[in-house]
UniProtKB/TrEMBL annotation:
<feature type="binding site">
    <location>
        <position position="128"/>
    </location>
    <ligand>
        <name>ATP</name>
    </ligand>
</feature>
<dbReference type="InterPro" id="IPR022415">
    <property type="entry name" value="ATP-guanido_PTrfase_AS"/>
</dbReference>
<dbReference type="InterPro" id="IPR023660">
    <property type="entry name" value="Arg_Kinase"/>
</dbReference>
<keyword id="KW-0418">Kinase</keyword>
<keyword id="KW-0067">ATP-binding</keyword>
<dbReference type="InterPro" id="IPR014746">
    <property type="entry name" value="Gln_synth/guanido_kin_cat_dom"/>
</dbReference>
<feature type="domain" description="Phosphagen kinase C-terminal">
    <location>
        <begin position="24"/>
        <end position="257"/>
    </location>
</feature>
<dbReference type="GO" id="GO:0004111">
    <property type="term" value="F:creatine kinase activity"/>
</dbReference>
<dbReference type="GO" id="GO:0046314">
    <property type="term" value="P:phosphocreatine biosynthetic process"/>
</dbReference>
<comment type="similarity">
    <text>Belongs to the ATP:guanido phosphotransferase family.</text>
</comment>
<feature type="binding site">
    <location>
        <begin position="210"/>
        <end position="215"/>
    </location>
    <ligand>
        <name>ATP</name>
    </ligand>
</feature>
<comment type="function">
    <text>Catalyzes the specific phosphorylation of arginine residues in proteins.</text>
</comment>
<dbReference type="InterPro" id="IPR000749">
    <property type="entry name" value="ATP-guanido_PTrfase"/>
</dbReference>
<feature type="binding site">
    <location>
        <begin position="27"/>
        <end position="31"/>
    </location>
    <ligand>
        <name>ATP</name>
    </ligand>
</feature>
<dbReference type="GO" id="GO:0005615">
    <property type="term" value="C:extracellular space"/>
</dbReference>
<feature type="binding site">
    <location>
        <begin position="179"/>
        <end position="183"/>
    </location>
    <ligand>
        <name>ATP</name>
    </ligand>
</feature>
<dbReference type="GO" id="GO:1990424">
    <property type="term" value="F:protein arginine kinase activity"/>
</dbReference>
C-alpha cells in the first residue's frame, strides 16, 4: 500500500458505512495522548530523539506476533516525505492534525487501510492514538483506542504518575489523556439561531464546541466538533458518558428544530434547500465557504426528503473534495484562489450530474 491510497478518495472507507444517528452526527472520535518515559516530550526533543520515538513505534508495529488485525495493512508515513499539499489533504480528511502537518518535521503517522485508525507520532505528544467511527459510536471508538493503547503499552514505557495519571504536554490532557469528540451537523439550530443559547450551556458542563478542524477553526457548513475539555479527575467512562449524554440532547434539539421548521416554514425551508441545490448544479465559480454552506443546505434537504436522487454520502464526499488541498490534489496542480473557485464549481457540477445519471440508469 502507498501514500496514493490515502489520497485517491475524499471520504474514508469507514465513512461509507451508515452509523447510528448519522443524519445529524457525522462521526465519533476518541483520541488518546501518551508520552514515552525515556525521551523528552516532543517540544524539547532533539532531532535524534524525535527519530527514536518514530523508530520505537515502528518497531512495535512490525512485531507481528501480537499485532491487532486493524493495523496489519497499515502504512507508516513520515511528514518529511510529504509535500505541503499532501499534508493538507490528510488534515482535510481528519487523518492528521494541523499541528502535525505544520510544525513537526520529524513527525509521522501510522494509518490503517480503512483510515479509521491514525496513530500520530511527535505531534504535541509522542503518541496520539485516534479512532474514528460513523455516527454516534463513541463507546466503540474508545474500545478500539483502548485496545491499541494496551497493545502499544506492551512494547513501550509510558510517562505515568501514580497521582496525576498519564503525563502530557498540555495540562488539560493530563490524567486519562483521552479526548472524546463528535462531529455534528446542526443546520436547523443555526437557521433558528438557537445555537447562540445552546453553545454557552454546553461549555458550562465541561465540553468544548469548536469548528470543523478543531481548536481555532471555523464551523464551516454548520459542522461542529464537540469534545471534553479536561481529562484529569474523571475516568474514561465518565468522560464518554458525559459527552454522549449532552450529544443526545443536542441531537434532540436539532431534530425538534427541523420538525419546527417543517411545520412553520416548510415552503421557505424547501426554497432555501432547492436554491442551494440549483447554485451547486449550475454555478461557474464558487468559494469554499459558500460551497460548504450550500452543501449543508442540500444535506439537510436530503435528510428531510426534500431532495431525491442524491445520496447523503455524495454531500459528505463533496465537503472534503471541495476543500483547497484535496481540490488541488484532484486537479493535479497548484491553483490560485480564483482558479480553485472555478475548478470547485466544475467538480461539484460534474459530481452531481454523475449521481443523477447513476440514479436514473
Amino acid at each position: 500500500m502507498s501514500l496514493e491510497h490515502f489520497m485517491q478518495h475524499a471520504i474514508s472507507e469507514w465513512m461509507r458505512v451508515k452509523g447510528p444517528q448519522s443524519d445529524i452526527l457525522f462521526s465519533s472520535r476518541v483520541r488518546v495522548a501518551r508520552n514515552l518515559s525515556n525521551l523528552p516530550f516532543p517540544m524539547l526533543s532533539t532531532s535524534s530523539q524525535a527519530e527514536e520515538a518514530v523508530r520505537l513505534v515502528e518497531e512495535a508495529w512490525k512485531n507481528e506476533k501480537d499485532l491487532l488485525p486493524i493495523l496489519k495493512d497499515a502504512e507508516l508515513i513520515r511528514m518529511r516525505d510529504l509535500d505541503e499539499l499532501d499534508k493538507r489533504v490528510l488534515v482535510e480528511k481528519h487523518l492528521i492534525s494541523p499541528m502535525l502537518a505544520e510544525e513537526s518535521r520529524y513527525g509521522a503517522v501510522l494509518l490503517s487501510k480503512d483510515e479509521s485508525v491514525s496513530i500520530m507520532i511527535n505531534e504535541e505528544d509522542h503518541i496520539r492514538i485516534q479512532c474514528l467511527f460513523p455516527g454516534l459510536q463513541v463507546e466503540e471508538a474508545w474500545d478500539l483506542a483502548n485496545q491499541i493503547d494496551n497493545w502499544l503499552e506492551k512494547h513501550l514505557s509510558y510517562s505515568f504518575d501514580d497521582q496525576c495519571g498519564y503525563l502530557t504536554s498540555c495540562p488539560t490532557n493530563v490524567g486519562t489523556g483521552i479526548r472524546a469528540s463528535v462531529m455534528v451537523h446542526l443546520p436547523a439550530l443555526a437557521i433558528t439561531q438557537q445555537l447562540n443559547h445552546l453553545v454557552p450551556a454546553i461549555t458550562q458542563v465541561g465540553l468544548a464546541v469548536r469548528g470543523i478542524y478543531g481548536e481555532g477553526s471555523e464551523a464551516l457548513g454548520h459542522l461542529y466538533q464537540v469534545s471534553n475539555q479536561v481529562t484529569l479527575g474523571q475516568s474514561e467512562q465518565e468522560i464518554i458518558d458525559n459527552l454522549q449524554g449532552v450529544v443526545r440532547q443536542m441531537i434532540e434539539h436539532e431534530q425538534n428544530a427541523r420538525n419546527r421548521l417543517q411545520e412553520v416554514s416548510a415552503l421557505q425551508l424547501e426554497d432555501r434547500v432547492q436554491r442551494s441545490y440549483g447554485v451547486l448544479s449550475h454555478a461557474r465559480i464558487i468559494d469554499s465557504k459558500e460551497a460548504m454552506k450550500r452543501l449543508s443546505d442540500v444535506r439537510l434537504g436530503i435528510d428531510l426528503g426534500m431532495i431525491h436522487g442524491v445520496s447523503a454520502n455524495v454531500m459528505n464526499e463533496l465537503m472534503v473534495m471541495t476543500q483547497p488541498g484535496f481540490l488541488q490534489r484532484y486537479a493535479g496542480e497548484r491553483l490560485d484562489a480564483e482558479s480553485r473557485d472555478i475548478r470547485r464549481s466544475v467538480l461539484i457540477r460534474e459530481r452531481l450530474a454523475m449521481e443523477q445519471d447513476t440514479k436514473s440508469a
